[in-house]
Amino acid sequence: MFTLWLLSLWLKDASIVDIFWGLGFVVVAWVSLLCAASPGPVAWLTTILVTVWGCRLGGYLAWRNLGHGEDKRYAEMRNKPGRNFALFSLVVVFGLQGTIMWIVSLPLQILPTLDGQFTAITAIGLACWATGLAFEAIGDYQLSRFKANGANQGKVLDEGLWHYTRHPNYFGDFLVWWGYFLLTLSADSSAWWTAIGPALMTFCLLYFSGVAHLEQRIKNRRPEYADYIRRTSAFVPWPPAAPQQSTSESVSSSHPAASRKQEPRPL
C-alpha cells in the first residue's frame, strides 16, 4: 500500500487504490502460501480461489475506471481547502485500507500453516465462495450493461439480481469472505478466531464504505431511489415488497395484514 501510495502521487490519482484492492489480497494469499513450510491442499485451493476472485475484481474496476480520471470521491478529498492531501491520502486512504486488508485477510494468512484435508465444511465453504463470486460477477455485468444504455441515464436498475437486492455485488463479497473463513475452519477448527476477518468485511460492507456510504450519495442524485429502497432488500436477496397502492385503495390497505405487505423488506 505504501508503494501504491507513491505511485498515486506520481499519477495524481488516489483512486487507483480501488483497482488494487482485490489484487492486494492475491498478494497476501500467495506470500502466505509460499512462506509456509508445508501448506495443505485446502490452502492451495483457497489461494487459487483468491486469485480468481481478486483478478476478476481488479480487472473489472480497471476496465471501468481507467481513462476517466480520478474518481470524484477522491477528487473531493483532494480539493478540500487547507488539506495536505499527500499525507492525508497516505493515512486515511492507503494506510486505512492496508490495515483493513491485513485484518480481513487473517484466514488467508493462517490457512497455509494448517495441514488440513478436504471435509464437508470445505465443500460448504467452496459453495459459499462460488455463490458469492456469481453474485458479484453477474451483478457487475448487469450494472455495466444498464449504464452503457444512454436511455437509462438517471434511472434506477431494478432488474436481474438488482430486483431482489440493492447491492448484489456487496452481498456476493460477503459470501466470498465467509467462504474463505469456512475453508480455513475446515482445515483446523482451532482457527475459529479468524472469523474477525470476514466479520470486519461484513461491517465495512454494511456500515462503513459499502451500503450506507453509497446509498447516501445515490439518494441525492436519483429521486426514484427512495421508492427502490422502500420495496427492495438492502443486502440479502429477497422478493420485493408490493407496489405502492393508489389513494383509492388506501382504505382497504389500512388493514394490518395489508400494511405488512407494504413494509420494506428486512436487511
Mean pLDDT: 88
**Uncertain parts:** 246-266
| Biggest sheet statistics | none
User: Roughly what fraction of the amino acids lie in strands?
Assistant: under 5%
Our measurement of the CA-to-CA distance between the termini, rounded to an integer number of angstroms, reads: 33 Å
| Helix share bin | 55-70%
- Tell me the number of helical segments per DSSP (H or I, 4 or more residues long): 13
How does this structure look, described?
With 267 residues, the chain is an all-alpha fold. It has two domains: 1-115, no CATH class; 118-241 and 262-267, no CATH class. It has helices at residues 2-11, 16-35, 41-65, 72-78, 85-104, 106-110, 120-148, 168-187, 196-208, 211-221, 225-231, 250-253, 256-261. It is globular. It starts with a helix and ends in a 6-residue tail after the last helix.
SSE blueprint:
Elements: H1 2-11, H2 16-35, H3 41-65, H4 72-78, H5 85-104, H6 106-110, H7 120-148, H8 168-187, H9 196-208, H10 211-221, H11 225-231, H12 250-253, H13 256-261
Compact overview of the structure:
This protein has 267 residues and is an all-alpha fold. The protein has helices at 2-11, 16-35, 41-65, 72-78, 85-104, 106-110, 120-148, 168-187, 196-208, 211-221, 225-231, 250-253, 256-261. Helices cover 66% and strands 0% of the residues.
Task: Output the keywords.
267 residues; mainly alpha; 2 domains; disordered C terminus
